[in-house]
Structure formats: C-alpha cells, structure tokens
Amino acid sequence: MEGWVVPPPKRPEKSKEQLREERDEKVRWLVSHGYLKSERIKDAMRKVPREDFIPLLYKDYAYLEVPLPLPGENATISCPHSYPLFYEPLGLDKGHKFLEVGLGSGYGTALAREVVGRKGLVVSIEIDPLTFEFAKKNLTNAGYHDIVLVHGDGGLGYFEMSPYDRICITAACKELPSPLMEQLMTGGKLIAPIIQYGIQTLVLFEKEEKGIRSKVICEVLYVFLKGKYGVEEARHGRQRDSQSTE
Ligand SMILES: C[S@@+](CC[C@H](N)C(=O)[O-])C[C@H]1O[C@@H](n2cnc3c(N)ncnc32)[C@H](O)[C@@H]1O
C-alpha cells in the first residue's frame, strides 16, 4: 500500500467562516459515506475546529482526507475519516472512561471529550515530548482543562485511572500491549491497527468474561507504535516517510 501525498506547507488564507463551512460539509460527507452514524460523534465533529489542532502552515488543509505532519518524530494528525472509523465500532459514548494511546495533535482527544461528556473521563498518553507539548497547548487554547494528559509510553497504559470502558491505540502494533488489555474492564472494547504479514488492519477487541473476541474492521496505514511494546523499526527511527502517515 502506498503512503499519502502530503500537500506543501503554505501560509493560511482561509477564513474561520470558510473552515466552518468545510467542517459542516465534511460531516455530511462522512455521514453519506457511511463513516459517521452516532449523533454524539456527529455533534462532536461539528463542534471541534480541526484547524485549531494543525500546525499553521497546514491549517488550510484541515478537511482534506490526508494525514498532516505534527511537531515530533513521525507524528501526524490522522485523516478526518479515521476518527469515526475508530470511535463508531468502539461505540464510544456518554459517560465512558476512555484511554487514548497516541495523543498526536489532541484533536481526537477533544472529540472524545465531547462524546463522553461531563460524566465521562478522557486520558491520553503521548510518547514524543514535542508532540505532547503541541497537543497540550492546542487543548488548553481550545478550553479543554479536564483531560488527563500523560507524557510517557502508552503501551504501559495508565494504571492510576484504570479500568477503562474503551481504549484506542492510534499507532500500529505487532502485538497488543498486555497492560492495555489488563486495564480494560470486562465488557470493554479496545481498537487498534495491528500489523500481520506486513499489512495493517484495524481490529476491534471485546473483553468478555470468558476471553477476548476480535473483529477485523478494514485495512489501514498508521505510524508505528514506539516504546516497550513498539515495532522494532519505530524504536530505531526507521519508519519510511511513505509508511509514516495514515
Ligand atoms: C497517528 S498519530 C495520532 C493522531 C491523533 N489521534 C490526532 O488526532 O492527532 C500517532 C501518535 O502516537 C504516538 N505514539 C507512538 N507510540 C506511542 C507510545 N508507545 N505511547 C504513546 N504515544 C505513542 C506518536 O508519537 C503519534 O503522535
């Protein structure tokens, strides 16, 4: 599978109003293409301005279906469709305690915060220090002060707030990090891009009393997970550019 073609950096020219219209249009497109179904995720995508989570020179591309570069090594903000692609099968909903591994820009985190609402909780972990600071600034500027942001290895999870109703890994893994499955509550769901035979597929895991059930959603292309449970190439900074986007 080929990587995506990232458009060239340029000074932003679009007004807030133009971007607002593009956002509404994007939501209609995601609905008509079957990605977006639940009202809470639709409302969140209408509400959160994606451009506020993108580096200045890429803001005009906020609603294109391409991942865009972020400060940090191999860090990207995923394509707009990837959020409902993850959150719909996960059944992310009001009141959930949600753990995200791979904070990136903070955009998916903000969406999740809107979806889980006041009675829910969002915890997000980022391993790259530059990416972490970028996301933290974005979320603070956007007025999100009640998300637990952790700088560290998300493969280890965040035991302090566990167990979680829902877990999402936004980087590709060869093996599912065992601490994450341990920190998922029984009846909970976890979604992650899993690498097998060189191909990445998005897999939904459901933790049941008797074991773990898994369901393949579709083929995807994500940056590799780093850290203790990371992919070898990512540990040595060897992910090629053509494979570094999703
Ligand atoms: C595709 S990006 C996340 C995009 C994010 N959902 C957004 O909305 O911008 C994947 C992120 O996972 C991070 N990452 C990779 N390995 C990690 C690990 N072990 N723990 C935490 N974050 C990790 C990368 O640094 C990168 O920022």
Let me know the largest β-sheet. Answer: 7 strands, mixed
Helix and strand pattern? HHEEHEHEHEEHEEEH
**How many DSSP E strands?**
9
**Which hetero compounds are present in the coordinates?**
S-adenosylmethionine
Uncertain parts: 240-245
Quaternary assembly: single chain
Look at the helices and sheets and give the structural class: alpha/beta
Helix % is 25-40%
User: Biggest sheet: strands side by side, in what order?
Assistant: 5-4-3-6-7-8-9
Distance between the termini: 11 Å
Question: What does this 3D model show about the protein?
Answer:
The chain has 246 residues and is α/β, with parallel strands linked by helices. The chain contains seven helices and nine strands, in the order ααββαβαβαββαβββα. The strands form two sheets. The chain has a seven-stranded mixed beta sheet with strand order 5-4-3-6-7-8-9. A two-stranded antiparallel ribbon has the order 1-2. A hairpin with a 6-residue loop joins strand 1 and strand 2. The chain is globular and about 55 Å long. S-adenosylmethionine binds next to strand 2, helix 4 and strand 4. The site of S-adenosylmethionine has 28 residues, from strand 2, helix 4 and strand 4.
